[in-house]
Amino acid sequence: MSKILIIYSTTDGHTKKICQRIKNFLTDGNLVELLSLEDSKKVDLSNFEKIIIGASIRYGKHSKELYKFINFNKDVLDQKKSAFFSVNVVARKPEKNTAETNPYIDKFLKISKWKPNKISVFAGKVDYPNYNFFDKYIIKFIMFITKGPTDTSQSYEFTDWSKVDDFSEEFRNNY
Ligand SMILES: Cc1cc2nc3c(=O)[nH]c(=O)nc-3n(C[C@H](O)[C@H](O)[C@H](O)COP(=O)(O)O)c2cc1C
After folding, report:
1. Residue nearest to atom 30 of ligand 1 (CA)
2. 54 and 134 housed in the same domain
3. 3-state secondary structure of 152
4. Are residues 55 and 132 in the same domain?
5. Tens digit of each residue's pLDDT (9 = 90 or more) over 15-72
6. N or C end of the chain: which has fewer CB within 10 A?
7. 62 and 9 within one domain
8. pTM as predicted
9. Model confidence at 1, in pLDDT bands (50, 70, 90)?
10. Range of the domain at 149
11. Are strands 125-127 and 155-157 parallel, antiparallel or unpaired?
12. Residue nearest to atom 21 of ligand 1 (CA)
């Protein structure tokens, strides 16, 4: 039985949904806590044996708060069995959906001083009806040039949930 902390950095909630799925998977045999990045600042990370952080991309970047959190907690993070994953829609493309081929993982590894034991990437969601006017049309334009869906009356979930479960299983078995 391990004490595991799962931290999510999200804007629209999809990364939290992925973290919830990982939590449900790992809860069998472990004590798992799920917290937002904001709430994680209030807990003592040294109380956990394993830490997973999931963070989404917005306009090409993970949040500044994510890097601040990592820098501030680097020493304690380095002592844990750990994993990081990014959520973005570039990862819906088969040629960009591994840690080795996704551009945002490459960026993360260049910026972050923390080097997690396991790194992954999951395709996120395009949720047009819930975007404001500006975001809706920027995302529609990006989808148009990258051959994605452009009907703004619909939501499109690209997440491969079996890949999320495989990530959880590998983390449980190897770390
Ligand atoms: C305003 C906005 C900007 C985004 N920018 C990017 C981007 O630059 N690259 C990308 O791959 N995905 C981008 N996305 C897609 C998000 O990463 C995706 O919707 C993800 O599921 C969001 O997760 P969250 O709900 O946890 O924030 C963007 C989404 C929005 C709404």
Report:
1. 58
2. no
3. coil
4. no
5. 999 999 999 999 988 999 999 999 999 999 999 999 999 999 999 999 999 999 999 9
6. N
7. yes
8. 0.98
9. confident
10. 125-158
11. antiparallel
12. 124
